[in-house]
């Protein structure tokens, strides 16, 4: 048997030398990975235990590496001293390892990522710095969620509680700066912002931290995001507690460093935990799984075994544990695919004489790219949940727990998941099986006990002592001062617009320090385009008042939601009583009267034509027939016609005509009633068309956009326009009229007109609004105040406060009650009834065509065959035929005879005619060319 085995072995070596060598070399007995940690930190200690736990489980599982032992070489680095940490990390890279777990510090991770790219060694890092990406560093593999997702969760919490400004305190290194930059982007996307950010070095002294907190306490924001490490973060919270910055009104949100510290430390001093009551923090969400339960059950013994008995398992431990398993599974697939572990020295790497880094000792992992590909393809359920990477090299479905510190422990108040990017009290893993619901209305968190042991949500801001004061331009009006006015004695601004602005500001979730600055001299109304331009030029931070939102202004500025509707309307004088004796003719225009009268006559003629041959009521002498036509036509106006129609065509035309008469009569009655009961405009301008087509002078308010609108949009000559500065001038010019140097009408915005009509009763609005605009507050482009004030104005509208402010300043008097009917006294025009007349005309024409077609058929049936005639006699013959046809049509049609014959006995025919013959009318002979025809 031995001889046979040796022979088979020799044959195999001869036939498949590469395959046998690959099989023997692909599964080494020991494979080394490296780990760069900070041993004297909480995260470093938890990570070291998690790596050892993973190695034990992997090496004891024969199904993973198939007999290959995985071992780790751990090195300590100093994260506080970036330079020494980088040197230590570079020295570690001299060892031949196929993958590296860590580093945990973002500063060192940036440097090592460059080296890992050159040496083609996969870097399984749990550094959360968002700027570390596989695009820049292909061999960088992040094994826990990045700060992009963490900051999205923090921003979601800020937005959920409707805080708009926050203060950010961060450690001044790559981790801190880049994390706050990510937070700033997320807050901006939710129309929030960081109003103040301050960084500090990792070795900051206590006095420096105290000065930092004092500065923060003087800021307007009371929502503070703390993005640091555990040691400086705990020191800051302790100092803040001593400065009474952990009481009512404050909100503290710490990033995941705090949850990691609390999870990992079994004994937190009572003084420390008491100083952070009500603080919110986030923690990477770890779903329940079998591997998680197994790891937690044996963690106590493992931590004792590796000299970290004071540490408990935190989220970092789960992710690091899965990182080692990901390397092991990738190695198994790597070996199955024929991968081999070999290193090659790079000639470009060498030290100068006496160097201590020994760069020439660094080797390139020959098949590092293949192992990296296997790592990115792993897909398994680990202790941290689903371990699978997306196209960007990030873990799929990152999620966070939202935690509140209360008493001696923590309470989970909700979750944030990147799957929906919303806050919810539903576990994220329960959402993955459903389509993502991204409606903000579905967000919900449990109640929180805030700092100061209060359940009431903090406002999140106070009025700061050093905030920038906004300069807000306000028009200093000469007329219509109910909208906005300046008290020269006190310098105080009051009015409808001022109250709307101040009430809206009171609803904002942050303070706004401002100062009103009057624009204009008060002797005439200022030009509002100039006021708006000062906001564009940054002379004013905003402009409030009765500012109309026009298209040209919105191209340069942002306006809030309109707080009052404002369209251009026409003011004209009115008279309350009709003195004209011919008022009954006013409902219809001249053209309408003419067409209506003509229609009566036409319909009468048509009915006469259709009824003349068979209806005796439409026959007689020409004078009688003319009287019948006129009488029948106009009697239908009152539905009092006494002549009966006998023909089907006549009845059809009459039904349609009576419907037309009903509409005309109803419209006339309604219009006449309006004329006799409602005050009428005593002006030639009764609407927009008359305004454009006339040559009369037109008034407008000084400073209003109405002047440019009429010139540019309505093409009204500028010479026709007259500027008016006060309600008194309005009334005086309307009273004078154009013949005495006044105006025929005034074009102004509706709010001014309503206020004017509350005092002056002899004018009214002609027609309806011919623009649809509103008043709003003007802000520079992309101003957050514009959006927030728009929301506040909508709130004022919904709760009725906007109407109360309106009634306070713009309440109309009894005089305006008569003027609230906006009269449009345009007469009823022909265009409004053209459809009815066309329908009636079409019915008449169709009925006549059908009638003459029937008559022509009957005439031809009684006409004898044409005789042979010469060409000379053709013309006279045609005339005689036409004359005979009209004579045929004009003749009375004889009635149909009714005969009844009594049959007696068995004879088939009666011997004598019956005496019971009913003859309604005598049979009339029809003469036709000397031949007598009896028509029955």
From TrEMBL:
One Pfam assignment: Lig_chan
Compartments it resides in: Membrane
Domain (Ionotropic glutamate receptor C-terminal): residue spans on this chain: 471-812
Bias kind Polar residues: ranges: 903-917
Disulfide bonds: 761-815
GO BP: cellular response to oxygen-containing compound; monoatomic ion transmembrane transport; response to wounding; signal transduction
Bilayer-spanning residue ranges: 590-610, 622-641, 653-678, 833-856
Gene Ontology CC terms, in alphabetical order: membrane
UniProt region (Disordered), positions on chain: 890-922
Alphabetical keyword list: Disulfide bond, Glycoprotein, Ion channel, Ion transport, Ligand-gated ion channel, Membrane, Receptor, Signal, Transmembrane, Transmembrane helix, Transport
First and last residue of the signal peptide: 1-21
Its biological purpose: Glutamate-gated receptor that probably acts as non-selective cation channel.
PANTHER family from the UniProt entry: IONOTROPIC GLUTAMATE RECEPTOR
Protein name: Glutamate receptor
Species this protein is from: Urochloa decumbens
